[in-house]
Design goal:
It contains twelve helices and 22 strands.
């Protein structure tokens, strides 16, 4: 059976000696550096340290209990009821209740939710939908649906971000987010006493700090994986973790589906993979990766510039704008795509992420959050703003559904990309979640007192 989301952990350094592999220690501060914002929604690194979901996914896509211990569906998957784990408390001492879960989900998912309504019924959280929701347990493991406290036990607004996760927020000072271990976490106390996350740190500065012992966990962008290997860094990798895709509206200048098809034909995926991402991205024309479905190869990935010209015909368009989410290689990829489209007769200008809402196209890295194929497909569609539920489960039917969606050319998959981090020599027992964030609850530090 195909392994759903294989986590590959490769060592670019020498294998750690057996003597160094000791039992976990409690204590110490885990120091992390990142380029972005640790609270970035929905996959910011701090989110998963402070908050939990009702469910969780393992690396094979199997759904497991988290804040909910059991669930069942009724009425042809139109109604689901979840029973909460007893005795769980938020980090301020407030109890986790069905009402607090409903308040959190109502706040974080005001639109484009997988459900039509959610309510507390006695000891249960009940979801109902106008359409079947067969993938709901897996979807609730996603970062969009983590549970936060919105009203304290005293009926007040919490003073800060408060969840049920292994670490609780202390404060933010000098560009460093500080978290401490939550002793009464339902999962058990984490090994590290504290986590410090330094944000907006350039990757090369992160690596320098790692090399001199000022950081324990730093980012390794996909395009720098080879360089990390040359520098003998110890790297943990989840592959694939994201799908690089071009999102196009079906309105405005690109409302013509033939024109959108021309854009899909004009993009050179091979150049993006080989030049921009240094052969670390697998070219793809499907949203779901080959390792998950086994049918990704059926979607053609070759560039056909002649067909792009034919599809465009003699149509003359005003200059188009291409927004890009992210920096570094994402910006370079957007520039390369703009050049590809210029060769197809389209005038495209790349603009900054702050202007993304006003653009004709957007280059995005959509998370592959794991789950079984149907759940992963629906999660991807929802990340792209699509709300149609995915009910097909048989591979042939799911392939047909994905093909029909991709034939609209409103979302053009380009590459499957890995997510990776480099770790320092004192870090032990670190793993990657299916969404590409490190799981630090069981991580310990070798030199902890």
């Amino acid at each position: 059976m195909l392994r759903r989301f294989a986590i590959s952990c490769f060592l670019a350094a020498l294998v750690l000696p057996v003597a160094a592999r000791t039992r976990p220690h409690y204590g110490g501060t885990l120091r992390i550096e990142i380029e972005g914002d640790p609270w970035q929604h929905p996959d910011g690194l701090a989110q998963r340290l402070v908050f939990d979901g009702l469910t969780t996914l393992d690396t094979d896509g199997t759904t497991h209990p988290a804040l909910a211990v059991e669930w069942k569906s009724e009425n042809g998957d139109h109604r689901w009821q979840f029973r909460l784990r007893p005795g769980v408390r938020f980090q301020d001492g407030s109890p986790l209740t069905p009402t607090s879960v409903v308040q959190s989900l109502t706040l974080t998912c005001a639109a484009n939710c997988p459900w039509t309504a959610v309510r507390a019924v006695g000891t249960l959280v009940v979801f109902t939908g106008n359409s079947p929701m067969p993938n709901l347990p897996a979807l609730l493991a996603g970062g969009d649906f983590l549970i936060s406290l919105t009203v304290t036990a005293e009926g007040k607004t919490p003073s800060g971000a408060t969840g049920t996760g292994p670490f609780q927020l202390v404060g933010f000072n000098g560009g460093v987010l500080k978290l401490t271990a939550y002793d009464n976490c339902w999962q058990g106390r984490p090994f590290a006493d504290a986590v410090e996350i330094r944000e907006h740190r350039a990757v090369r500065d992160q690596w320098l700090d790692l090399s001199v012992g000022r950081a324990d966990l730093v980012e390794v962008p996909a395009e720098m994986l080879r360089q990390a290997q040359r520098q003998r860094l110890t790297v943990i990798t989840l592959q694939p973790a994201t799908v690089l895709a071009l999102q196009l509206p079906d309105a405005g200048a690109l409302q013509n589906p033939t024109l959108r098809a021309a854009i899909a034909m004009a993009v050179d995926r091979g150049a993006l993979s080989n030049v921009i991402f240094q052969k670390q991205g697998e070219v793809t024309a499907s949203l779901l990766p080959q390792v998950l479905t086994g049918y990704s190869f059926l979607f053609p990935t070759d560039r056909d510039l002649n067909k792009a010209h034919v599809l465009r015909g003699g149509l003359t368009l005003p200059p188009l704008t291409l927004g890009v989410e992210g920096n570094g290689a994402m910006q370079l990829a957007a520039q390369r795509i703009a050049l590809n489209l210029h060769e197809a007769g389209l005038n495209v200008r790349v603009v900054g992420a702050s202007k993304a809402q006003q653009t004709d196209m957007t280059l995005r890295a959509l998370p592959l959050n794991g789950g079984k194929p149907a759940a992963a497909f629906e999660a991807l569609l929802r990340s792209a703003g699509q709300s149609a539920p995915v009910v097909e489960r048989a591979p042939a039917a799911l392939f047909k559904e994905e093909r029909e969606f991709l034939d609209l050319h409103t979302l053009i998959p380009l590459l499957d990309l890995p997510k990776a981090y480099a770790i320092g020599g004192r870090v032990r027992d670190i793993q990657m979640r299916p969404d590409g964030t490190p799981d630090l609850a069981e991580t310990s530090l070798e030199d902890a007192p």
